[in-house]
């Protein structure tokens, strides 16, 4: 298939151990496909291997084995084309302190062979909100401004795929919103986006598709919707109108009471319908003042997948 933005097959990375430290198997045979046009989330706990994978895509880390195809170009056979197809905003703030934002964008464009007439530094400076800092030394910029400049640098060669490694870790709300607004706009214009984030809520909101990586292995890859559907646990929270002496009973329904008088009815959507739960409530003579249902969120899925896996590999 050539319709993937990124295709990763059997990717491994082993870092050599130095000074008596053992070698580190950061990626242990990863297969991953990122569809074109998607906003793709790469999630995993610290040390899972996310940055290693992203830095391999960016050409900053040399893989140990496996195959990486970017926009249809094999990274080993077509290094130039594959590199031109991707722009990466790294996790680390690695900026030359003596460049101005405009200078940094121009140098980056030069590295990617973008001809002077096709450069668009002004447009990018405008987009990242640094027009008025265009001629300031990078070392005088705030952390947030440096982060925005890194985003700008990733865009100089109009890549098909934009990769953002923890773009919102430790940034303020304003910058986070600006980043997401930019990401949405670029995606609407057709750019494929890959991002890692610690904030599961953010991934749930932003991403069409998600891969969860743990200890150098992909433990799940699916649409955000399907991933959430994997946990079919539901809870219905009922505030009774008047007395509620008896517990509702029904197959697959468990009931507990909260201090505020609410009844929490847990059930599986695969076994029981919400309607059947409500019937059980009425059958117990309970009048309902208010009701709401709660579904599993990405955090539940994430914990379910990464905690069982870490137990398994701790035992091995
Ligand atoms: P993540 O981005 O998911 O937090 P990383 O890819 O940064 O994870 O790291 C994966 C594992 O590889 C970690 O155990 C980390 O300590 C190790 N690692 C990362 N970079 C190096 C390196 N340059 N040398 C040795 N080990 C490394
Ligand atoms: Mg990282």
UniProtKB/TrEMBL annotation:
Domain ABC transporter: 6-240
Pfam families: ABC_tran (PF00005)
The protein's name: ABC transporter ATP-binding protein
Keywords annotated in UniProt: ATP-binding, Nucleotide-binding, Transport
PROSITE patterns named in the record: ABC_TRANSPORTER_1, ABC_TRANSPORTER_2
Organism: Lutimaribacter marinistellae
Source superkingdom: Bacteria
Matching PANTHER family: ABC TRANSPORTER ATP-BINDING PROTEIN (PTHR42711), ABC-TYPE MULTIDRUG TRANSPORT SYSTEM, ATPASE COMPONENT (PTHR42711:SF15)
UniProt GO MF annotations: ATP binding
InterPro entries for this protein: AAA+_ATPase, ABC_transporter-like_ATP-bd, ABC_transporter-like_CS, ABC_transporter_ATP-binding, P-loop_NTPase
SUPFAM superfamilies the UniProt entry points to: P-loop containing nucleoside triphosphate hydrolases
């Amino acid at each position: 298939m050539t319709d993937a933005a990124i295709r990763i097959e059997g990717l491994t990375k082993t870092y050599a151990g130095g000074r008596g430290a053992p070698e580190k198997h950061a990626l242990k045979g990863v297969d991953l496909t990122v569809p074109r046009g998607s906003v793709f989330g790469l999630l995993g706990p610290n040390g899972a291997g996310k940055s290693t994978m992203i830095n391999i895509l960016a050409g900053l880390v040399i893989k140990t084995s496996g195959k990486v195809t970017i926009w249809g170009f094999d990274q080993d056979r077509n290094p130039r084309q594959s590199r031109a197809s991707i722009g990466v905003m790294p996790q680390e703030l690695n900026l030359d302190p003596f460049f101005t934002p405009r200078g940094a964008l121009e140098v980056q464009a030069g590295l990617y062979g973008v001809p002077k007439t096709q450069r668009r530094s002004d447009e990018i400076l405008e987009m990242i909100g640094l027009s008025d800092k265009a001629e300031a030394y990078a070392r005088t910029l705030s952390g947030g401004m440096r982060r925005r400049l890194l985003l700008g640098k990733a865009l100089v060669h109009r890549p098909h795929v934009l990769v953002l490694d923890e773009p919102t870790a430790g940034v303020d709300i304003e910058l986070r919103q600006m980043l997401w607004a930019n990401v949405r706009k670029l995606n609407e214009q057709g750019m494929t986006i890959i991002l890692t984030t610690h904030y599961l809520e953010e991934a749930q909101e932003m991403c069409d598709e998600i891969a969860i990586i743990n200890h150098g292995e992909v433990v799940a890859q699916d649409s955000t919707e399907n991933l959430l559907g994997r946990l079919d646990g539901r809870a219905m929270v009922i505030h009774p109108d008047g007395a509620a002496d008896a517990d509702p009973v029904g197959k697959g329904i468990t009931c507990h009471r909260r201090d505020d008088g609410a009844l929490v009815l847990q059930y599986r959507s695969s076994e029981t319908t919400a309607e059947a739960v409500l019937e059980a409530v009425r059958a117990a003579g309970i009048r309902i003042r208010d009701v709401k249902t709660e579904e599993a969120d990405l955090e539940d899925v994430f914990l379910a997948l990464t905690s069982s896996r870490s137990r398994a590999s701790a035992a091995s």
